[in-house]
Write a structure and sequence with these properties.
Layout: H1 2-16, H2 22-26, E1 28-48, E2 55-78, E3 86-94, E4 98-111, E5 114-127, E6 138-150, E7 155-168, E8 178-190, E9 196-207, E10 216-229, E11 232-245, E12 254-267, E13 271-284, E14 294-306, E15 310-323, E16 334-347, E17 351-364, E18 374-386, E19 391-404, E20 411-423
Antiparallel strand pairs: 1-2, 1-20, 2-3, 3-4, 4-5, 5-6, 6-7, 7-8, 8-9, 9-10, 10-11, 11-12, 12-13, 13-14, 14-15, 15-16, 16-17, 17-18, 18-19, 19-20
Length: about 425
């Protein structure tokens, strides 16, 4: 009934929306719609004898649909002031299995010369069918407060506090109630040509009442920069953090460094080169009996052409993973190389499309029966289309296929999410 009701509301608003001007009169914006979500994985499974060592029958494909349902959507947003310093909203979503209700708030104001932002969210989800499982229903809250105090025209000090909690109806090994509190202090600066950067000290702590081993204290230093120059643009994010759990034997304690950077060089009016680097290094406490140190590196080099409304890039994409050796565990070290193609197309107010394809091969340093070399195809697609003045279609699609040297290790994964909504 919820889905039929949402569909009826959408149709009614589409027919009568031209005569309803509530949003213009009172600062309200309403949105109603329907959607469809699908998440599926397919892999092969061997049939084994009672001893579990000899295959009696050929391997067969096993498909698991984790999500396959329609959903009804309704939301309201209220902006009471013309300067948009305050925004309040609520959204309701219903599927054949779940109710979901969210409340949102966003405040942007000034305290003297300082800027203050506050964001809050309450998220309630409840499973209403007869197949409820532990962890399906919960109440979650999140808030963030940020104060920016100017030092001069280009430099400011920032203070930020975040809080989060989640309360499950039933606690399991994978769903624990917790409370999290964090803070940041740092500097942010504006540069010429609309460039900006910042550097911050961070602290985060989590408390899990039912499992003290999951409590942690996280200290970090992070920085970012986004800038333009005459022939291109550059941006990067870097973070160094230390996470200390309350568990025994320093299990899961680690020091981590990550870096993400992109550089785009324009070659004339229509051509460009783009370089991307992703690096992640984790060093676990020497006393940790389980985890192994590792680093992961990804590099992409694209060349292409672009115009006012489109961009097309193509080039090599490589990634490698290197782990500390362990005689008791299978090694997952790999090197993969592929061809990446990016395509973006947009027209302001009408549509936006972004697609990415990576086709390649992964080689493992020391494989096993379950970890084997394979070729792959990864496809990502995002689309936003304005069908009529207030009717919009959003689409997200992701898929990955693996073809292994051992065919029974082949697998595929699909994700699809769509929303058709009418705003009035």
């Amino acid at each position: 009934m919820g889905l039929l009701r949402a569909l009826a509301i959408t149709f009614f608003l589409f027919i009568t929306g031209g005569f309803l001007n509530l949003s213009e009169a009172a600062g309200f914006t309403f949105k109603a719609g329907i959607g469809y979500d699908f998440l599926s994985q397919e892999y092969f499974l061997d049939s084994l004898d009672e001893a579990g060592s000899v295959s009696l029958y050929p391997a067969f494909a096993l498909r698991t649909n984790y999500r396959d349902h329609l959903k009804g959507l309704f939301s309201v947003r209220w902006i009471p002031f013309e300067d948009r310093r305050l925004e309040l909203g609520s959204s309701y979503e219903q599927t054949p299995d779940f109710f979901r209700l969210k409340f949102l708030s966003d405040l942007r104001t000034k305290i003297g010369a300082s800027k203050f932002n506050f964001t809050g969210e309450i998220d309630w989800r409840n499973r209403h069918d007869d197949s409820a499982q532990f962890g399906d229903s919960y109440l979650r809250g999140y808030s963030r407060s940020k104060l920016s105090v100017p030092i001069n025209r280009k430099l400011a000090t920032i203070f930020q506090i975040t809080g989060e909690f989640i309360d499950f109806d039933s606690v399991t090994a994978l769903s624990w109630d917790y409370y999290r509190l964090g803070g940041k202090i740092g500097l942010e600066s504006k540069f010429g040509d609309f460039s900006f950067g910042d550097i911050r000290l961070t602290v985060n702590t989590r408390q899990v009442p039912d499992s003290s081993n999951l409590n942690y204290l996280n200290l970090g230093l992070e920085g970012s920069y986004f800038g333009f120059y005459r022939q291109g643009e550059i941006d990067f994010y870097t973070r160094l953090e230390n996470k200390d759990y309350d568990g025994l034997d320093h299990e899961d304690d680690f020091l981590r460094y990550e870096f993400s950077g992109r550089h785009k060089l324009r070659l004339g009016q229509s051509y460009y080169l783009r370089q991307e680097v992703e690096f992640d290094y984790i060093s676990f406490d020497p006393a940790d009996p389980i985890n192994r140190d590792y680093y992961q590196l990804g590099v992409t080099l694209l060349t292409g052409l672009e115009g006012i409304s489109y961009s097309l890039g193509i080039g090599p994409d490589i990634e490698l993973l290197d782990q500390q050796q362990d005689e008791l565990l299978d090694e997952e070290d790999y090197f993969e190389a592929g061809l990446r193609v990016d395509f973006d197309l947009m027209k302001v107010g009408r549509f936006f499309v972004s697609a990415e394809s990576v086709t390649g091969h992964r080689n493992l340093r020391n494989g096993s029966e379950l970890l084997t070399d394979h070729s792959f195809e990864r496809l990502y697609f995002i689309g936003d289309l304005t069908l009529m003045r207030m009717l919009r279609l959003n689409l997200l699609f992701s898929a990955e296929w693996e073809w292994h040297d051992i065919s029974t290790n082949n697998s595929s994964l699909y994700l699809l999410s769509t929303n058709l909504s009418y705003t009035f």
